[in-house]
Write a structure and sequence with these properties.
single chain; mainly alpha; 5 helices; about 190 residues
């Protein structure tokens, strides 16, 4: 004889709900910033978030595809950079949420929004992969600097601080580390 599970122990599966806050809208929060300032910051932060999600994915792809005499060093470096970008993804998303917005979280949505060019599905030569990462960083850094200035002008010091201290400073350092791997120097003799 089969008995029904006790009430409260069976998960309520396959639930669907209606959208309670559409993407691109901002709910009111008592944080001392106007609705327009928060809406603008969410828009700019979401664009950086989509691009940073793509940069993270690009780092992981290139990390897996590394080859050649500097394989080990680059494999580790790209993984370290990817982990730092993943942390920035989380910080950007949480900032959007703290402003009352909806963070772009679905990779398909991020892919629609990003300005980082899509790489080929296959493998490229190592210098091309590093160059692709540098170009993605430059896209993000140019947008980040503009966004930081504009949100600061609207009084959003929190978003400005996040963009400058995390996106810009981390991006600049990662560009430096990557670019040094593209300097044409002999490996074994002068």
């Amino acid at each position: 004889m089969t008995t029904a599970p006790a009430r409260g122990t069976q998960p309520l599966l396959h639930q669907k709900g209606h959208e309670v806050q559409p993407f691109g809208t901002v709910k009111q929060l008592p944080i001392g910033l106007s609705h327009d300032a928060r809406a603008y910051a969410c828009q700019r932060l979401n664009r950086l978030l989509a691009d940073t999600q793509m940069l993270y994915a690009l780092y992981k792809k290139h990390h897996w595809l590394m080859r050649g005499p500097t394989f080990h060093q680059l494999h580790l470096l790209l993984d370290q950079h990817a982990e730092r970008q993943l942390a920035i993804v989380d910080l950007l998303a949480e900032r959007v949420q703290s402003l009352g917005g909806i963070a772009v979280g679905d990779p398909r949505h991020a892919a629609e929004m990003t300005r980082v060019p899509r790489p080929p599905d296959g493998a490229e030569e190592v210098p091309a992969m590093l160059s692709r990462l540098l170009e993605a960083h430059e896209t993000i850094l140019a947008d980040a600097r503009d966004a930081a200035r504009r949100v600061a002008d609207l009084g959003d010091d929190g978003s400005n601080d996040l963009i400058v201290s995390e996106v810009v400073r981390t991006g600049e350092t990662q560009v430096w580390f990557l670019a040094e791997h593209l300097v044409d120097t002999p490996l074994t003799r002068v």
